[in-house]
């Protein structure tokens, strides 16, 4: 199944005027599902920070977005804003003073790695078992 | 898949980008200045001293919560002896606790190891195993080869 970006996220990415209509308190926490200009799992806040859009950042915060959402690289919107040189100081200010902001959230992506490793380690033994079975039957066949 | 884990907080990033106003503001809003990132094992203060950002380091030192010792490293070793202002700030007394944010052995890790162990045991208990053309029949090597592979991959990851 191919994952698609929600309509709000698409509107935010293309900077279209539809965005204000699509933005509701239900859809405010939707994230990107694919890698594009922004990393996977980027929230609306990440996208708007990247676009340097001060008014929409404030709008999204007022709509009650979870300001501590982390993208696939583990960065919160605040860390991304601080890392990107072109982001305006006013955006950093509104992020710092956003309600419920967790300043001590480290940008670690631990669980993703464990998931990848587990996938390989669980599939590898299966391959071994199947290859062993196949060898067994072929040997018996040859003996007969 | 092997990309590095950084463990940086907003205070680390603001320090490294030499953003003194934001550092000041984060400290006023009670951000924790004693969290350790993974790459260098630095708190924001140690990062500032390592990168010679004395302006930011001064602001971090003016906060009474900032620790000047992390593990067996002292911040004093990173300062030029000629920099009197920072040295005088370092001489003030400090609290001691440093909270680690580095990688920890989590429940998820434990479950992964458990599953891996079960998988290896399953391999060891079938009649014979062929690895890259060689056949191992019900002996220790059938069990040890996947274990070595897993150990190798985990050591690369760490």
Overall mean confidence score, pLDDT of chain A: 82
What proportion of the residues of chain B form beta strands (DSSP E)? 5-15%
- Along the chain, the helix and strand elements of chain B come as HHHHEEHHEEH
Please tell me how large the radius of gyration of chain A is: 22 Å
Q: Major sheet of chain A: size, sense and barrel closure?
A: none
Number of domains of chain B: 2
Strand order of the largest sheet of chain B: 1-2
* Average of per-residue pLDDT values of chain B: 77
- Record field, number of beta strands of chain B: 4
Helix-strand topology string of chain A: HHHHHHH
How many H/I helices of chain B? Answer: 7
The CATH architecture category of the largest domain in chain B equals: Alpha Horseshoe
Describe the structure.
The complex is a heterodimer of chains A (144) and B (158). With 144 residues, chain A is an all-alpha fold. Chain A has two domains: 7-107, Ankyrin repeat-containing domain (Serine Threonine Protein Phosphatase 5, Tetratricopeptide repeat, Alpha Horseshoe); 109-144. Helices cover 53% and strands 0% of the residues of chain A. Chain A contains seven helices and no strands. Chain A is elongated. Chain A starts with 6 loop residues before the first helix and ends with a helix. Mean pLDDT of chain A is 82; it is low at 111-115. Chain B has 158 residues and is mainly alpha-helical. In chain B, α2 (20-28) packs parallel to α4 and α4 runs parallel beside α5 (84-90). The longest helix of chain B is centred in the last third of the chain and has 19 residues, at 107-125. Chain B has two domains: 10-90, Serine Threonine Protein Phosphatase 5, Tetratricopeptide repeat (Alpha Horseshoe), CATH 1.25.40.20; 107-157, no CATH class. The radius of gyration of chain B is 24 Å and the shape is elongated. In chain B, a hairpin with a 2-residue loop joins β1 and β2 (73-74). Chain A binds chain B through residues 74, 76, 78-79, 82-83, 85, 89, 92-93, 96-97, 103-111, 113-114, 116-118, 120-122, 124-125, 128-129, 131-132, 135-136, and chain B through 1, 3, 5-11, 13-14, 17, 19, 21-22, 25-26, 29-32, 35, 37-38, 101, 103, 106, 108-109, 112, 115-116, 119-120, 122-123, 126-131, 135, 146, 149-150, 153-154, 157.
